Structures are given as C-alpha cells and as structure tokens.
C-alpha cells in the first residue's frame, strides 16, 4: 500500500520532506510552512490545536503524524475513533524532549517508511549529520548562564527544564529559569509568570523567541524591565524549538548564539 501521510506538526512535516517522502504528503497544518516549495500544493487542515477533522478524513491518510506537546489528545482520540479496519489511519505519536532524541525520531519514521526508495539512505545521512552536530555541541565547552526563554507575553510564558527547548539550550550550558520540571504532558511544561518572582533578578540572559509569539524590537525594553540584570536578545524560535531535520542547523545556530553571548 502506498502511504498517504498527514502531518499535524511543522517539524515533522519538514522531516518528512527531508526523508524524501514529500510526494506522499496529503495533509498538513497551516503552520507547516517549510520547505515552502515542496508544500505548496499539500492541502491544509487547520492548525496544530484546531485540526479540521472532517477535511482530514476526506483526504484519506494512511498515517497521521502527531506530537504530544503540539497536538491535542482529543484530536488524536477522534482520529483513532475512525475505526481499526481497512482505511483507518495509523497514528504515529512522537515526543522528542531533547536534541539527542532526534536520532530515535528518525528511526521511528524509518520503521514505518524505510521500505520506500531512498528513505533509508536519506535517514542515514541525516542521522550522521545530527550526530556530528551533537558531538560539537557539548555543555562542558561553554560557561554556564542562567537564561529566561520567553515564548509569550501578557502573560509572560516560558519553558520548563524538561522540555525540548530547555534541553536544547542546555547543550551550551544555558540553564533555564525557573528551576522547574513540568512533567510529561500538560500546561505546566510552559509556565506563566507573574512578573514579580524573586529569581528574575538572577537571570543573566533573556531570549525573546520569534514563535509562537512574534517578539520584536518593540519588546526589548519591556523584557529588560522584567529582568533588570540581564542582557536581552531576539532569537529564531524555529531554529531552537523545531526538531527533526531542523536540529542540524539549529545546533549550529545555538553554538553561534553562545559564542556571541
């Protein structure tokens, strides 16, 4: 059976194309924008949190790619409720929580699609490139910094230490504050701030992400008031938070950030 892949996660959509599976994509979210040329004619089925399930079902995917953090459990349950017989899609649940987990993620997709021409070769090349970047990005090579990574404002929101983002930053010895683990799932993984926490004065560097909130130069002073002892800079959220194929240039980007800090 020829696979018909629906990807409900931007990072996974990019990875699918990188593995040579772009021609098998039959659905994506509106946030799945890279690589643009390869996705131009792939139908959109809403967002990561508000999937148009009726449209998705009409597109008859054989495989649906989802992520624990980025998609809603009720969405996944609804897709699984379509049945278990012929024609029901296989839901592939992913949950990388650190850059090294991308190796297992590649293997996970390889287990489903590695029989298709060229996929195994592309997966091997991507895994080799990823391992090289991981080897070059070792925490012991960098001085420790206390970092606040902001993903939202009004209210301010950040990342717990057991998220992919925090573990990505830890590769250059950047320790995210607060010192808090959010658990395997749920809102606690992305805590909101009151803005008067005592530990804000300990932050050495504030990183304002380009996504999901589009921080810009107009927010720099506001962030400086939040953490008066910290340097503040805008960063490319896609480079730091997207996993899969993006982790290769993302780790290089992270080292460049740390080198100029």
Architecture overview:
By secondary structure, the protein is of the alpha/beta class. The chain has 2 domains: 5-135, Rossmann fold (3-Layer(aba) Sandwich), CATH 3.40.50; 139-260, Nitrogenase molybdenum iron protein domain (Rossmann fold, 3-Layer(aba) Sandwich), CATH 3.40.50.1980. The protein is built from 10 helices and 8 strands. It has helices at residues 10-18, 36-39, 53-58, 73-80, 102-113, 119-136, 164-170, 220-226, 237-241, 247-260; strands at 5-7, 25-28, 63-67, 90-94, 145-150, 174-176, 205-209, 231-235. The strands form 2 sheets. The chain has a 4-stranded parallel sheet, sandwiched between helices. It has a 4-stranded parallel sheet with strand order 6-5-7-8. The longest helix has 18 residues, at 119-136. The radius of gyration is 19 Å and the shape is globular.
**Any idea what the CATH superfamily of the largest domain is called?**
Nitrogenase molybdenum iron protein domain
Class derived from helix and strand content = alpha/beta
The top level CATH class name of the largest domain: Alpha Beta
Number of helices: 10
Alpha carbon gap, first and last residue: 51 Å
| Overall mean confidence score, pLDDT | 96
Tell me the total number of β-strands: 8
**In sequence order, what are the helices and strands, one letter per element?**
EHEHHEHEHHEHEEHEHH
Give a short account of the largest sheet: 4 strands, parallel
What would you call the shape?
globular
Helix content: 25-40%
Side-by-side strand order of the widest sheet: 2-1-3-4
CATH-derived topology of the largest domain: Rossmann fold
Q: What fraction of residues sit in β-strands?
A: 5-15%
Note poorly predicted spans. none
The appropriate CATH architecture of the largest domain is 3-Layer(aba) Sandwich
Total domain modules: 2
> Using only CA atoms, what is the Rg?
19 Å
């Amino acid at each position: 059976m020829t696979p018909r892949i629906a990807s409900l996660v931007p990072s996974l959509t990019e990875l699918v194309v990188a593995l040579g599976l772009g021609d098998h994509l039959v659905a994506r979210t509106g946030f799945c924008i890279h690589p643009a040329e390869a996705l131009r004619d792939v139908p959109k089925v809403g967002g990561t949190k508000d999937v148009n399930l009726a449209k998705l079902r009409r597109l008859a995917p054989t495989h649906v790619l989802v992520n624990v953090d980025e998609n809603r459990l009720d969405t996944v349950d609804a897709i699984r409720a379509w049945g278990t017989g012929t024609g029901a899609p296989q839901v592939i649940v992913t949950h990388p929580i650190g850059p090294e987990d991308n190796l297992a993620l590649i293997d996970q997709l390889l287990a489903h699609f590695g029989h298709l021409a060229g996929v195994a070769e592309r997966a091997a090349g991507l895994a080799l490139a990823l391992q090289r970047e991981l080897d070059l990005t070792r925490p012991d090579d960098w001085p420790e910094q206390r970092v606040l990574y902001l993903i939202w404002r009004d209210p301010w929101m950040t990342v717990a230490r057991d998220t992919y983002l925090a573990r990505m930053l830890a590769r250059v010895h950047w320790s995210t504050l607060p010192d808090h683990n959010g658990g395997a799932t749920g809102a606690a993984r992305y805590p909101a701030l009151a803005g008067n926490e005592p530990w804000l004065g300990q932050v050495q560097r504030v990183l304002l992400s380009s996504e999901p909130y589009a921080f810009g130069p107009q927010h720099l002073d506001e962030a400086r008031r939040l953490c008066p002892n910290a340097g503040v800079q805008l960063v490319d959220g896609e480079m730091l938070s997207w996993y899969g194929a993006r982790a290769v240039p993302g780790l290089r980007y992270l080292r460049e950030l740390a080198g100029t800090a």
